[in-house]
Write a structure and sequence with these properties.
Blueprint (H helix, E strand, L loop, with lengths): L4 H11 L3 E5 L3 H14 L3 E6 H7 L1 H14 L4 E8 L2 H10 L3 E4 L6 H12 L7 E5 L11 E2 L8 H11 L3 E4 L7 E2 L7 H10 L4 E3 L7 H9 L2 E6 L1 H17 L6 H22 L1
Parallel strand pairs: 1-2, 1-10, 2-3, 3-4, 4-5, 5-7, 6-8, 7-9, 9-10
Length: about 280
């Protein structure tokens, strides 16, 4: 069922857990994510980024994810991930998305606040996630990422949340999009300070590649939404590589992508179990 992202955040705060936010680009990934959520009886954010909307086309992909959410047997919020502008937020809001993210993290603090506020004002109760600090890497790429990136300052975070009215805050504590180069080192003391500094749930991007122990510790320190993208795409590529080498006879598309969906579903289920 399609629900507001605020409902999922509120439930996570009350329950002391994190909701998984899983990125999709097409039908097969969407079906795998929903199947995993239903198998685990877990609420999720079904997340679509700008790169995915460019790839799939706004109307076809938006309608696909909204239909999948409505038909799901578990609560699903359809989330716009890393929007660089207010216009995209408003467009997604107009077709029925139930959660939005505006990403002004590359801007100076005052400009980030101004951009984020412009996204929050027309949202009409739909939760808006902001980001402060620098989560490294590219959202749609799985290249190796350095972990030496700008961290979120707790004092700035307090100001940012108070002046923007965001429903949640994505933070940088050593996390990065894509594949980590070496072992990631998360700053848990900073995370605890951020939890104490703001009144909204914290969001962790770049969860692919983080250990289960680190994820559980982050949850214990106030993270209530965790984004996963790379590990789903890795499962897709691994399955397709194996199938194309062994099962190309007959060119059976349903078997090719059916196997990939099972592997992606398992990757999502594994994350939900930790969260």
């Amino acid at each position: 069922m399609l629900v507001s992202g605020q409902t999922l955040l509120d439930d996570a705060v009350r329950g002391g857990y994190a909701v998984g936010s899983f990125n999709t680009y097409n039908l097969e990934i969407t079906k795998a994510i929903i199947a995993a959520a239903e198998a685990r009886k877990a609420a999720i954010f079904l997340s679509v980024g700008g790169g995915a909307l460019d790839y799939g086309g706004f109307a076809p992909l938006a309608q696909l994810v909204l239909a999948a959410a409505r038909e799901a047997a578990v609560p699903v919020a359809v989330h716009l991930d890393h929007s660089p502008d207010v216009a995209t937020c408003e467009r997604c809001l107009g077709v029925g998305f139930t959660s939005l993210m505006i990403d002004g993290s590359h801007l100076p603090l005052e400009d980030n606040i101004a951009l984020t506020r412009r996204a929050v004002e027309p949202a009409g109760g739909i939760p808006v996630e902001g980001e402060l600090g620098g989560v490294g890497g590219e959202e749609d790429s799985s290249g190796e990422q350095e972990t030496a990136i700008p961290m979120t300052d707790p004092a700035q975070a307090r100001v940012f949340v108070e002046q923007t009215g965001v429903a949640s805050l994505a933070v940088a504590i050593g996390n990065a999009h894509g594949v980590y180069k070496g072992e990631p080192k998360l700053d848990f003391d900073r995370l605890a300070a951020l939890r104490d500094a703001v009144s909204v749930p914290l969001v962790l991007h770049g969860a692919s590649g983080l250990s289960d122990g680190d994820l559980r510790r982050a949850i214990s320190l106030g993270v209530r939404k965790i984004n996963v993208n790379t590990e789903i795409r890795q499962a897709l590529f691994h399955s397709l590589t194996q199938s194309l080498q062994t099962q190309s006879k007959g060119f059976d598309v349903t078997k090719l992508f059916g196997a990939a969906m099972k592997e992606m579903q398992q990757a999502v289920e594994d994350k939900i179990a930790v969260f």
